[in-house]
Design a protein that fits this description.
By secondary structure, this protein is mainly beta. The protein has one domain: Immunoglobulin-like, CATH 2.60.40. Helices cover 10% and strands 49% of the residues. It has one helix and ten strands; from the N terminus they run H-E-E-E-E-E-E-E-E-E-E. It has one helix spanning 3-16; strands at 20-21, 37-44, 47-48, 51-52, 64-73, 78-86, 89-98, 101-111, 117-123, 129-136. The protein has a four-stranded antiparallel β-sheet, with no helix packed on it. A four-stranded antiparallel β-sheet has the order 7-6-9-10, with no helix packed on it. A hairpin with a 5-residue loop joins strand 9 and strand 10 (129-136).
């Protein structure tokens, strides 16, 4: 296997799991009870400066899907789990660390393996569903 490819995949995995904290005035506040909330989220093909660059329409079936989200968290640091489904079948689970912030930016990625439908469910540390998003990938 090409060493650049292996190093690139390792770098992509580790950078995708490094959360970036950001504050902004337009952020939705965390829930009144202090629970974790998904402020905003989207599928994208790449991340630059902790923000999505393209939309889900740029993701090809033989590529990697990235799911970016901003999380409101008024309590202590926690973890979220992304459950990835490809064409209706669970393909991966990915744990993301989330710190205390009104807008904590983080993301996860999963190879699409030529799938035409990608679904991500965001679970809190107790396994409760916070959000589910789906994407249909066009092209071959």
């Amino acid at each position: 296997m090409n060493h650049r490819f292996v190093l690139g995949m390792c770098f992509s995995f580790f950078t995708a799991t490094i959360p970036v904290m950001a504050f902004a005035d337009d952020a939705k506040a965390p829930a009144a009870d202090g629970s974790v909330t998904v402020v905003s989220s989207q599928f994208t093909d790449k991340i630059e400066h902790a923000k999505p660059v393209g939309g889900g329409d740029a993701i090809a079936p033989s590529s990697t899907a990235t799911y970016w989200l901003e999380v409101g968290n008024a309590k202590e640091a926690t973890q979220l789990t992304l459950v990835w489904k490809l064409d209706g079948v669970e393909a991966a689970r990915q744990t993301l660390d989330v710190g205390r912030a009104p807008k904590w930016r983080t993301w996860g990625s999963c190879p699409t393996r030529k799938a035409h439908a990608v679904e991500v469910t965001v679970l809190d540390k107790d396994g409760a569903t916070l959000k589910t998003d789906a994407l249909t990938i066009s092209g071959s």
